[in-house]
Each structure stands twice: as C-alpha cells, then as structure tokens.
Fold each of these.
Amino acid sequence: MAKAVYPGSFDPITLGHLDVIRRAARATDELIIGILRNTKKEPLFSLEERKSMIEDCVKDIDNVTVKVFDGMTVDFARENDANIIVRGLRAVSDFEYEMQMAQTNHTIDPQVDTIFFTTSLEYAFLSSTIVKEVGYYGKDVSHYVPEPVVRKLREKFSDGILK
Ligand code: ADP
C-alpha cells in the first residue's frame, strides 16, 4: 500500500498546494497532509485555522486526512507508517533546498523516499507569501486560493488593514 505524507506550512493553502494534493492522492492509497508547527516562522493563520481550511478544501477527496506535526518530516512519516514524502517543485529556485532535504531525509531513514510533483504551469508563480501580500492590500485572491480561504483572508484583512 502506498501511504504518503505531504508536509508544509500551508499558511494558507493555495490552489498550487491543492493541485499537488489532488495529483498525489490519485497516485497513492492514502495521503496525510502534515502541517508543520514551525517555531521559526510567524504565521498569519493559527494551526487550527490552517487545519480547518485544508479539511474544508479536501472534504471531497476520500483518501486524504490532515494532521499537525512537530519535528522532522521523516519521523512524522514513520509514525504514520508512510514511506513516501510528497513535495511540490515550482521553479529552479525550489530545487536546491528540496534536493538537500530529500537526500537528508533518505539518509536518516532509507525506507522513506521523496516524490516531487512539478507544479501545473498556471500555479508556478504561486506561494502563500504572495497570496498574503495580495490579500493584505485588499485585492482579489480568488484566482490563487480555494473559496474557504478567500473568505478567511477577507476576515483577516479588512480594507487592507490587519485586524
Ligand atoms: P514549506 O514552508 O515547507 O515550504 P509551503 O506550505 O510553502 O511549506 O509548501 C509546501 C510544499 O508545497 C512545498 O513542497 C512547496 O514547494 C509546495 N508548493 C507550494 N506552492 C506550490 C505551487 N504553487 N505549486 C506546486 N507546489 C507548491
């Protein structure tokens, strides 16, 4: 059985993430989205908010669940009996870091492999950071994020001013 984890910050989930999730869910039997509790980054959305937005967006995909985790992705994978880590690749700029992480994880646990999904062209420029930037200035973000996230971003930013 192919069981995979897809780790990330998802602050917030974008259409680029969702595209990777749909494709990875088709390629695996079970996919667990792991939201990393990252102490180095100050997030816009709390872990609970991020989890509930993702759950809302993936409720129509049977084999996908959402969890929060701490620490290294390889450990999260093993704790969930998964031997695949899913990551998305947007541009050459992602490549160096992603390759380093994949090789490190594979050294720590040779049973775990990383599989990359190259971004669909229409989402190649998209990142959570860009979405927050555009949302902050009160612009339309509906081309970048799923509907539940559009609503949450509107709630967070009112007339371009952070509540
Ligand atoms: P992290 O902080 O771990 O990079 P992100 O939430 O930014 O977390 O991204 C999680 C994963 O999704 C990463 O592998 C990233 O490359 C991938 N990703 C982010 N945006 C896109 C996109 N637009 N298309 C494809 N993959 C993406």
Amino acid sequence: MVCLLEKYAEYFPVTSKTPILSLGEGNTPLIPLDNLSLKLGVELYAKCEGLNPTGSFKDRGMVLAVSKALEAGASGIICASTGNTSASAAAYAAKAGIKCHVVLPAGKVARGKLIQALIYGANVLAIHGNFDVALDMTRKLADDLGLDIVNSVNPYRLWGQRSGAWEVCDEIGAPDWCVLPVGNAGNISAYWAGFVQYRRAGLIASIPRMIGIQAKGAAPLVMGRPFEKPETVATAIRIGNPVNAKKAMAAVKSSKGMFLAVSDEEILIAQKDLASSEGIFAEPASCATLAGLYKLRKQGDLPKKVRVVMVLTGNGLKDPEIVGKMILSPNEVAAEYETLREAILSC
Ligand code: F0G
C-alpha cells in the first residue's frame, strides 16, 4: 500500500514521533482526457481525487491533520463541512480511535457524504444555518472544548493537500495551467504552495497558472465580496465567505491566474459531458472546472495546446440525487425479448 505520509516524508512536517496513519490515500490517477482535449484544443488531464479512500481530495490533508492531532495527544477532532471534510474526518478519526464531531448545514449536504460521516461513527450535528455559520461556531467550539479543528484553518490540512500537486509534477512535470473548484479556498492555496515547494526544491522550473472556479451563486472571490446567502447545486462549494481567501488571492495573483464563475446549468452540462465522453463521474463541484474551461474557450481565452490539469475533487457517486435532477432516468421496458431488441435497435 502507498502510504502518503511516508512517500513524501521529506516534504511533510513529520518526525519520528508522528504516528503514521493511512487508509491508502493519494496516488490517484492522472488521466489524459483525449476526447475533451480534441474538443477544447488543449492537452487536458484529470487528477481523479474521487478515487481517494473516502472519495475526495480531503483525505490528503486529513491524514496529516489527524496524525499530527494524535502526536499532540488530542482526544477528539471537530469540523464544519459541506460534506466531504466530514466524511474524511470521520474515517480517519475511526482509524485513529478518537472522537469526531461534525457541524454541517441541514439539508444541504449530498446524501452519500452524510451517510459516510454517520457510518464512520461521527457525532453529526446538522444546523439550520449555512456552512459559513457552521465554521464560525466550530472554531469557537474547538477553542472552548479543546478539540482539534480539522478544517482548512488547520495548517496540516493544507500541507497534506500539497501532495496532489507533487504527484502531478512527479508524473508530467509542472502543467501550464492548474484548474480547481474553489469553496473555502484551501485546496487552490495548497496546490500553489505545493508547486512553490517543488520549485524551491529544484524539481520544477515554473509554477502553473492557478485557475479557481466558483459557482455563480457562491462566487465571493470572483465578485470580491462575501455572499451572505450562497446558493448552488454544487453543495460542496456553497460557501459565501472563504477562510482562505487571502491565500488563494495571493496564489492566483502571483501565478498570473484567475477566478471565474460558472452557472449551475453550466456545471451540470459539464458533469454529463465528462461522464459520457471520458467515462469519469465526478461530483458537481469538481465539474465546475470543466465548465470553466468551456467558458474560457467560448470567450476566446483558452490558448491552444496549453497543458491543463483539472483537479476533479470528489466522486460523483457521493451525490446520486443530482443525476435525477438532470432528468436522467432509465427507459422502462417490458420484460419481452422483442421489445428489448427493438429498444436497442432504435437507440
Ligand atoms: N470540491 C469538493 C468536492 C469539495 O468538497 C470542496 C470543499 C471543494 C471542491 C472546495 O475546496 O474549500 O478547499 O476551496 N469542501 C469542503 C467540505 C468545504 O466541507 O467538504 P476548498
């Protein structure tokens, strides 16, 4: 088994005293997207983070955050979440044998993610407030109760997530562009820090342009102001006041990148396209990346032949209900050979 903390031990803040946890995180496939590359006129790759143990990129940061919490003698962890952080925190807490508390927005977390947090044994508290409110309260609760917070305000979370950038570089070198969905703005900051660390180590020559995509209804970094009532079908990035805003803005500015907003409709079209043309089922937030590339191409802002990595942050199976909303359902056919044969021939 590839153990992320051991594989990149020299780049992580781990010591001989750090307990090395692992659920087999990282080492995710970087898949060349031939069909979409042709369509867009670029060299496009997908970093498939949905293949992490709990189905999202969060595992890269969580494995380090929980290992460091154990090293510091923590008895429990706490997080606010739009879903994936809670699934990941709950799994690593289970592995570590410590308690995990989760605060999340009631009715706004994809079913698969909620079920993960519950089955891994977390104490799941659903509040009638959005993620920003949940995170605010969680930070206070952590201080008050002496729990380790494992949101992306925890520096180890972001450090762990740098490994996604390192894996990309180890495989194809630094791409020209790196495109990520942006919610709390941690992952784009982490990837950038990962590229910077690799450049300092002399392993890459240049930093990719960092392109952050938000949903139109939750686009504080695109609009330059917090959104009090963020709303989007991509519930993972339904965030109005990102805690890592400053870091992400610095990453985008210094890499000559950009932030861009896409509509829910554009996200769902991209999700369907990605699945039906490349065989990859990613959750809506992840597909904001492809929607962003479509948009840039339409505007004439996507240079030909650039090498682009889009980070597909979460697995589509976490949010099956969204597919129902896209009015995708099977054809019901009588259990008769001739009818079935006809249904195949007429397709
Ligand atoms: N994509 C997915 C699938 C996510 O779950 C998240 C964040 C993001 C993108 C955005 O990453 O916050 O680092 O900018 N999910 C968090 C959670 C907020 O609670 O699971 P970010």
Amino acid sequence: MSESANPLTGPSNFIRDIIKEDLKTGKFGGRVHTRFPPEPNGYLHIGHAKSICLNFGLAAEFGGQCNLRFDDTNPEKEEQEYVDSIIDTVHWLGFDWEGRLYYASDYFDQLYEWAIRLIKAGKAYVCDLSAEEVRRYRGTLTEPGIESPYRNRSVEQNLNLFERMRAGEFPDGSRTLRTKIDMAARNLNLRDPVMYRILHASHHRTGDKWCIYPMYDFTHGQSDSIERITHSICTLEFEDHRPLYDWYCENLGIYHPQQIEFDRLNLSYTLLSKRKLLKLVQDGHVRGWDDPRMPTLSGIRRRGYTPEAIRNFCANIGVSKTNGTLELAMLEHFVREDLNRRGQRVMAVLRPLRVVIDNYPNGEVEEMEAVNNPEDSSMGTRKVPFSRVLYIEQEDFREEPPKQYYRLSPGREVRLRYAYFIKCTSVVKNEKGEVVEVHCTYDSATRGGNAPDGRKVKSTIHWVSAAHAIEAEARLYENLFSKENPNDEPQGNDFTANLNPNSLEVLTNCKVEPSLAGAAPLTRFQFERLGYFCVDPDSGSGKLVFNQTARLRDTWAKIEKRL
Ligand code: ATP
Ligand code: MG
C-alpha cells in the first residue's frame, strides 16, 4: 500500500482528497461528519460493508464522527428485525456510532413543517394524478414532461388539501404532494418530484401516527442537514439525484451537506440486491438470511469470515466513479490470508476410511505433539492421541494408484502427520467390492515423522484416532450461483434459475480430533490439508457442526502474482 494508505479506507482516493481540500479551505469549519444510512428492509450485505468501512473509516481517519441512521420512510417493507440485525452487524464489523443512532422517522414532524414551508413559498402543490399518470406526464430523456393540471392550485388550496391528506381523508395513491420545479428540466428528477404519498400503513416506529410518508429524496438530504453531516457519501445511482438534494437544501434555506457518490460493490457469482436476497429466503432457496452461502454479513459471519478480513478487503478495493464487478476470489483471498494467520490447525477427516495398524500394540495410546499454527509459534502445540485404529480420508487411499498419486496404496509407505511412517499391506472390501478397511504396518523408528535411515516418503496424510474421534457434521459450500453474473436471467426464467444446485453438501459422518470437543460456535479452524472451517451455531449438546469457510487453494493469489 502507498504511504498515505489508511487501514480502514485504503490507499488514497478521490473522496479523501475532497475531504482534505475541505479541511484546508475550512468549508465545514474543519469538521468531518459522515453517516451510514441503511434502509431497514433487509439484512446488510458485503456491498454495505464497503459503505460502512468508508463512512466510519473516513470519520476515524480525520478525527470526525459517523452516525448510524435508519432511512425508514417505507413502512411497507421495513421491520424491527432488520433494524436489530443491522445494529448487531455494524458492531460486529468493528464500528461504533458512539450513541448517535438516528431514524429518519424521528424527523417526520420537521419534514412535514418543511413541506408546508415549500407550499407557502409556492414551491409545492398537491397533485391528483395517479402514480401511473405522473409517470406518463414526466416525459423522457429526449422529450420534456407535461405540467400537471393541478400545478397551479393556490397556496390556500394546497395547504388545505395537504392537511387533509395528513388527516387521512383520502385513500392511498389518490393524491401526492409534489415539488414545483421544472417539467422541462433535463434531469428527470427535477420534473416536479413527488415529496409525499398517501399510505395508510403502520410504521415500525411511528405506528399509525402518519398516513402520509415522505419520499426518499425529500428525506435524505434533510436528515443529513439535521444531523449536520458534512460529507454525505452514497453510491453512484444517486448522482442524478444530487441536484434535487441540493435544491431542497437551498430552497429550504437549511444547512447544506456535500453529497459525494462512489461505485457500488459488485462481486462475481453474487447477488447484492436486497429484493432478490429476500426472495431467496422467502422461497426457501437458502436456510435464512444468515445461511453461510448468502452474501449477507450475517451469512458471511456464520460462514467463518472475520471482520478483519472484510475490512482489509474493503480497504484494498478502493473507491472510484465507475461501477464494475470484482472477482469473488478476491474476497476469499482476504479471508484466507487472515485465517491462515490466526486459525488453529487441527486434524479432521471428512470422508473416513478405517486404517488398522496390525503391528501396533492393541490398547496402547500415544500422545503425539502437534503444532497449532506454523505461522505463529506463540500459538503453541497440543497433544493428539494415536492408537492402532485410525481414520484417514478416503481420497488418501487408492487401491490402484494412478500415475503421480503418492498417497497410500498397497505396498506404498506414507507419513502420518506428527506420527509414524505406515505401509499398506492389505485391504478389506465389502460385498460391493469397495475398500472399507486398510491394513498397514508402522515403523516404530519413525516416530515424529522421520526415518533414522534417511529414507523418504512422498506423501504426508492426516488422520484421527478412531477410539478418540469425535463425530461431526461438515457443511461444504460452493458458490450460490453457477453463473458469473446471476442477474443475467435465462430466457423465460428469473434469476433463481442461475442457482447452483450443488451449493451445499452435507457430510454427516466426519471424524475430528478430540481437542475439538465442545468448541464454541464461530470458533475458526484450519483442518489440515482440507481448508478453513468454523463451528456452526447449530452445534451444542454433544453435536458438532462445521461450516466450510474457504478452501485452501487461493486462486486470487495466483492471479495477483501474474498481474
Ligand atoms: P438495495 O438496492 O439492495 O436495496 P440499497 O442501496 O437500497 O440496496 P440501503 O440500505 O439504502 O440499500 O443502503 C445503505 C447504504 O449502503 C447506502 O448509502 C448505499 O448506497 C450503500 N450500499 C448499498 N449497496 C451497496 C453496494 N453494493 N456497494 C456499496 N455501497 C452500497
Ligand atoms: Mg437505498
């Protein structure tokens, strides 16, 4: 990273440059105050992490503050469950709003007053066109819009009708309050945008107090203004809304924050639309919002990703002014990099094959010393029991080994990690002809994994002592979607047709070393030679369930090397 890189917001970027300039010129009196403004209509996803890291990170970097604000203007889609999960998730990511938790709905009274102010100034009117008519009158990018026949109502009429809208006299959708700007404006957002709509719906915080609700555009900038935000950082799709953001601040004569847009995060094989994620949950394509295959932060967390890894990823992807799509492998790279450093290594066998060491004394148990993390000697060592009957991975044995297969096979000698050399002498098969047990002999002189006579083996495999093994379930994951761009819908189908039917594989007969007994949910491990795994919260009362966090192979590291 460059000299000016920040651990939270990464190398220098244009937003930081704007802030630095503003600090120099004293534009906001030397203050930096940002906010993260989620709508509580779903769970946060990895795209939101980018925005969270940016907003909280910039505030931290410049000694400023960052608020958490719920943009809750749509009672039909918003719920307390989402509010709770968002609060929990932002904390988990490692950020703190220091008590500045706000809700746009807390500003409804103020917004209503401001609407009245615009009506009195002749800059807003009640319109009786239906939503469909409003859309038709709006015109297109090449044609100007048509003025509403209600545009020239008197201030008194408008005040009266707006008050009655609020009082609940009119049905949903029958009227709106609109800003009187310019139906011929090049920017469609300035063609008399709707400020308020009628919606007889209970709000998760204000209950039935209101039956008119402000639109996003009439809420967001004013909320920023009330909170005295300096830099209102949002994604590129709001660029066309900035003139309206500015218009409201100017015409209301209120404190005016600066809106700055950056590119949305998109990832290959991943969907980041809350609407589509909700559909996956509702239609049962996944086990819930926190299914480890989901790109939600709660899913990612359950999968075993660390907040540090996500923050590193966000710092490294940077921000720009053009949308693109990043490789999912890049996110996984940051997860591996972090887990490789901190995850304890243990031995686990996912698809067990019994191995009997015929010349090892029956009933004897030895404690083998195993290294907890070769990357970090301070993590120490532990004892792993070794005995006559073991489990190894089925794929570590082949009765007829292909060329270049150096693991166990008849007559072949291999090293058991932290233990001995063993040599396969015979196999036992079931009636279907499948190998169900492998017989071996061991060389007692090779304890610790080296032969005193200097002879070499080409392979080292992991194992678990059968008598000491703990039963476990492992959930293995592939990408949730098999198409690189899951939004690319096949003809006649929706995006769910792009789901990968093999995204989840459950192995119920795994054997893990006894040190894993009672491992707490969300504890992360590296299963030797297999990959990163994390204890699932479904574990408990004797049951042990692991989620596969990531495979060992790092495709992104390879790509990076080539770049
Ligand atoms: P969706 O379109 O899926 O509903 P949204 O943008 O409406 O997402 P919000 O809850 O409004 O979701 O988002 C809160 C903040 O997070 C906004 O400032 C938004 O710009 C930002 N954000 C949302 N998605 C992404 C993304 N993919 N990358 C970066 N920032 C994002
Ligand atoms: Mg939004």
